[in-house]
Amino acid sequence: MIxxxxxxxxxxGLTIDRxxxxxxxxxxxxxxxxxxxxxxGVRVRxxxxxxxxxxxxxxxxxxxxxxxxxxxxxxTPTFMHxxxxxxxxxxxxxxxxAIRVAELDPRERPGAILAAPIADEVSTIDLARVDATSTRxxxxxxxxxxxxxxGEVRPLQLSALAPELVVELSQFDLLVASRExxxxxxxxxxxxxxxxxxxxxxxxxxxxxDGVRGVWLEREHLPVPxxxxxxxxxxxxxxxxxxxxxxxxxxxxSGSFLRQRAETAMRxxxxxxxxxxx
Length: 278
What we know:
Low-confidence stretches: none
CATH superfamily: Ribokinase
Radius of gyration: 17 Å
Strand order of the largest sheet: 5-4-1-8-9-12-13-14-15
Mean pLDDT: 91
Helix content: 25-40%
Largest sheet: 9 strands, mixed
Number of helices: 7
Shape: globular
CATH class: Alpha Beta
CATH topology: UDP-N-acetylmuramoyl-L-alanine:D-glutamate ligase
Strand content: 25-35%
Structural class: alpha/beta
Number of domains: 1
Distance between the termini: 28 Å
Order of helices and strands: EEEHEHEEEEHEEEHEHEEEHH
CATH architecture: 3-Layer(aba) Sandwich
């Protein structure tokens, strides 16, 4: 039984991830975050969407008791993962449905809300319904994806974002993107952070994740606490963003607060990757 007031509400899709060895597994932000949060005492609830595939139904059963709402779709977003010398490459093989952001009972209002779409399942209209009385964060990955004719995932330039989406995101407290998400802007994370700030205005705290090189804040670069090689890093960015928000944020935030949250979140990611090795 979870507490009435969760620490974090995650709004995002499930996925089915297929790999070059022929295996497949459920994934997606809500699942990766829930698996990391439960053993660490973070109370998480989710809003998601899923299709009828066995992998998706098994994941929903795993999330049972954490689920605020599940929207049914004809299919679950399915990605093919392939490793290359330049990093992981993704192809979207099948699209999924949309999440309708449900109204929450005020007694169940979470401490923080994280919008973590995978592939267009959270609309701008629904993003505007995210309760502004909670700390609000978003993972930009799902908003910054375009798809080639063969389905390969490619970074979308910030200038291509809909103006109404930019307006909504500019009112959030925390926005997290990966270096790969922002390759349409620049290759260097400090330049990417500058592009994000020009696009999204002064309010949100901004973080760019950079794999084994750590994370970039606007004020500084933070290295990973330790490297974990030889295990899949799928979902690492989702877990990082969730644990940035897993404790209450003060109304006035200092640079040291953001640094401490980022360092804690990176330690959790490293622990989760070590657990995968086991």
